[in-house]
Write a structure and sequence with these properties.
Layout: H1 15-23, H2 30-34, E1 44-47, H3 54-61, E2 65-70, H4 73-87, H5 91-97, E3 100-104, H6 107-110, E4 118-121, H7 136-145, H8 151-161, E5 165-171, E6 185-188, E7 192-198
Parallel strand pairs: 1-2, 1-4, 2-3, 4-5
Antiparallel strand pairs: 5-7, 6-7
Length: about 200
């Protein structure tokens, strides 16, 4: 039976996001470290490939101000719906989502207008070499947004315009993205790594 993209939902309160929010390790998490969230620093971050907004929500929950950019119509609508439901959940979620601004458009065009300190890019990753099926949710997202053939161009624009750092979220064992400078350093998780490019 084929996957139905109508099954996809953006949920910041329940499921994996809610669990991550309630039980996560604060600013010691790899993404928070990659974004430079330490001490009282709360940078302005642009999530240039927002998807379901999970990374953006985590960073906002830790105090950062986030602008999410999503160019796909359906994904943007899912995000808008998820943000609205979270805002209406309770004051805690309302406070977090007030630090999240959703934009609909092409990040390559919007980034130069935003004066971001930190830019996070999480493109559709290269196909896995393993035979194991990618999780259903990722298959659904791929069915909606397709591939990101302009990911290298997006990274080049981000590297030009971020005032502090750029973060490339990439599979742990994948080869470096071609066509860009080497990262300043890397922070690794269980299956993901963050290639960090310091711009100061």
């Amino acid at each position: 039976m084929a996957d139905n993209t109508d099954d996809l939902i953006c949920d910041f309160v329940g499921g994996a996001v809610g669990h991550r929010f309630r039980s996560a390790g604060g600013r010691g998490q790899p993404l928070a470290k990659a974004a430079g969230l330490k001490g009282g620093k709360n940078p302005f971050i642009v999530d240039a490939t927002a998807g379901l907004g999970r990374d953006a929500f985590l960073l906002a929950s830790l105090g950062a101000t986030i602008t999410l950019i999503e160019r796909n119509d359906k994904m943007h609508d899912l995000l808008a719906d998820g943000l609205l439901r979270a805002r209406n959940e309770n004051e805690t979620y309302k406070d977090i989502t007030q630090r999240m601004t959703l934009l609909h458009g092409d990040a390559k065009e919007l980034i130069p207008t935003l004066n971001a300190e930190v830019i996070l890019i999480d493109p559709m990753h290269p196909p896995r070499q393993k035979s194991a099926l990618v999780k259903k949710e990722m298959r659904l997202i791929r069915d909606i947004v397709g591939t990101d053939p302009d990911a290298t161009e997006l990274m080049q624009i981000a590297l030009k315009h971020a005032t502090a750092r750029v973060i490339l979220k990439w599979p742990l064992r994948a080869a470096p993205m071609q066509g860009i400078i080497p990262p300043s350093h890397q922070i690794t998780g269980k299956s993901t790594r963050y290639d960090v490019f310091i711009r100061m």
